[in-house]
Specification:
The protein has 76 residues and is mainly alpha-helical. The chain contains three helices and two strands. Helix 2 runs antiparallel to helix 3.
Length: 76
């Protein structure tokens, strides 16, 4: 499965890359790789969007990334 081009904005891709999630939009990812990325994105949303279980000023940013991923990867 390929990651849809335009799924993330440049600032989102840059943030993902900074935390070790470098997406290759030209790559055909296996289902296992997609699941691994999804788990890493969920962890990032919790790690960078919340402090002690409370949303921080980056919460909406990370939730948008996770929501975009989920919408793109879930079959209709």
């Amino acid at each position: 499965m390929k990651i849809p081009d335009g799924l993330f904005k440049k600032d989102q891709l840059d943030a993902l890359k900074k935390i070790g999630i470098a997406l290759d939009l030209s790559k055909d990812y296996s289902n296992d790789e997609i699941v691994d990325i999804e788990e890493a994105l969920q962890d990032a949303c919790l790690d960078y969007g919340f402090v002690l279980g409370e949303p921080n000023d980056q919460c909406a940013f990370w939730e948008k990334i996770c929501d975009s991923w989920q919408d793109a990867m879930d079959p209709m």
